Amino acid sequence: MTLPKTQVGFCYDNESRKLVKVTDLPVKQPTRGEVLVKIEGAGLCNSDLHVLSPRGGPIDLDGSNDKQRFVMGHEIAGRIVSVGEGTETTFKEGDRVAFFITHACGQCLDCRLGRDNTCGAKAYGLNQDGGFQEYILVDKLRTLLPIPDNVSYEQACSACDAILTPFHAIQKAKDVLTNPATKVLVVGVGGLGMNAVQILRNYPVDITAVDLKPELKESALKFGANRFGTSLDQITDEDEEFEPMFNLVFDFIGSQGLYDSYYMQLQRRAKIMMVGLAKPTFQIHNFLNAMREIEIVFSFGGNSQEQLQVLEWISLGRLKPITSNAPLDEVPKYLQLLKEGKVVGRVVFQPKL
User: Fold this and answer.
1) What is the residue extent of each domain of the chain?
2) CATH of the structural domain 173-298, one choice from 3.40.50.300, 1.10.3720.10, 3.40.50.720, 2.102.10.10
3) Residue 156 gets which letter from DSSP?
4) Enoyl reductase (ER) domain: which residues (predicted)?
5) What integer pLDDT is reported at residue 64 of this predicted model?
6) Distance (Å, rounded) from C-alpha 7 to C-alpha 194?
7) Continuous segment of H or E residues that includes residue 198
8) Which residues, at least 6 apart from 144, have a Cβ–Cβ distance to it below 8 Å?
C-alpha cells in the first residue's frame, strides 16, 4: 500500500502544557527491528485528563520524558502495514495487534517475574508517542499482542487499560474471591469500575456497587452487581436486612471522602485494593486499621500476560466492553465531555484514512 508522508495527530506540548493538533507529523518507514502500524482505534481515558491537568504532565516514574511533544493516547489497536527489512519477528503485514502500554524491556527482574507493568518509565501516549494519530512506528515489538479474530479493534482498545487495570487488581485478590461468603464493595463504577463488576461476576461473591451517578444503576445491576446505591447509607435505607460489612473493597476513585465513607464498614482482615488516582495523597487511619489487620494494596495497570487473558475473555464472551466510536478530529470535544462526566464507557477514536 502507498503510505502518506505526513499525518494528523493530537500531541501534549511540554511548553504550553496543552493539547495541540499537529497536521504534519511524519509517517516514518520502519527499519530493522521496527514495524509500522496503521491505527484502527485509540481509546480515551481519564489518565489523558490527568496529563492535561494543571498538576499533571507526562506520567512516568523517574522524570525520563525526553520529548518536547508526544502524541497522546495509550489504549491502541491497529494493523501492521510494514515490517522493517531484516526484522526478526513472527509478526507480518496484516496482523491485528493491541498495544501493551509500557515499553517493557523483557530482561529485568520485574519482566522475568511477569511484572512488566512496572518495568521502566516509558509508555505509549503518557510520555512517548501514542495512538491519537494515523500511523505509529513501533520499535519495542514485545509491546504488540495479537488480537483474536472475533475481537474488534474497539474491544481490543478497552483491553489495553480499561479492562486490564481492574483485571490486574482482581487477580491480586483471587484468594478472597473463591469464598461464596465474600462481600465485595466496588467504589466508582465508571469505566474501570463497571468493567470490574463484569469481571467479578465470574466469581461466587456478593457485589455491592456505589457511585455518585444514579443513572449508572441499571448498567451496574445488568453487569453483575447485587445492589447499587449512590452511598452505602442509601443502600441500607432501602434494604434494612443488608449488612454493609465487606471483606474486599475495590476503590476506583481514590479520594479522602469516599475512603472515609467505607473504612469502618470492613470486616477484620479485609483488603482494600486501591486503584483510583483521583487525589495524589490522602490519610489512612493507622490505629483502627491496625487493630483489624486491614490490608491496603495499591495496584497499577496490568501485565502483558493478563492483557492476553483479557483479550481471551472478550473472545469467549465473558466480558463485553462498553465502547462507542468517534472520529479522531473530535479528541478535544470528547476530552471536555469526559471532564464534565458525560462519557459512558470507552470512546474509541478512529482516523479517517
Assistant:
1) 6-163+302-350, 173-298
2) 3.40.50.720
3) H
4) 15-349
5) 56
6) 35
7) helix 191-200
8) 35, 37, 80, 91, 97, 98, 99, 100, 138
Superfamily classification of domain 6-163+302-350: Medium-chain alcohol dehydrogenases, catalytic domain (3.90.180.10)
Counts of helices then strands in the chain (DSSP H, E): 12, 16
* 221 neighbors 285 (Cβ within 8 angstroms): no
Residue 68 burial (CB < 10 Å; 0-12/13-18/19+)? exposed
Residues 309 and 288: beta-carbon distance below 8 Å: no
Please give the chain's pLDDT, 353 residues, in tens.
Answer: 788 999 999 999 988 999 999 999 999 999 999 999 999 999 999 999 989 988 778 876 555 556 789 999 999 999 999 999 999 999 999 999 999 999 998 999 999 999 999 987 789 999 999 999 999 999 999 999 999 999 999 999 999 999 999 999 999 999 999 999 999 999 999 889 999 999 999 999 999 999 999 999 999 999 999 999 999 999 999 998 999 999 999 999 999 999 999 999 999 999 999 999 888 888 998 999 999 999 999 999 999 999 999 999 999 999 999 999 999 999 999 999 999 988 888 999 999 75
Per-residue model confidence (pLDDT) at position 62: 58
Instruction: Collect all residues with Cβ–Cβ distance below 8 Å to 56 and sequence separation of at least 6.
Output: 17, 49, 50
Strand ranges for the chain from DSSP E: 6-13, 18-26, 35-43, 69-71, 75-83, 96-99, 135-138, 144-146, 183-187, 206-210, 227-229, 246-251, 266-274, 295-298, 323-327, 346-350
- CA-nearest of 95, 124, 156 to 9 is 124
Count of CB atoms within 10 A of residue 193's CB? Answer: 25
Sign of CA dihedral 66, 67, 73, 79: negative
Cell numbers representing residue 291 in the block: 487493630
- Give the CA radius of gyration of the chain: 21
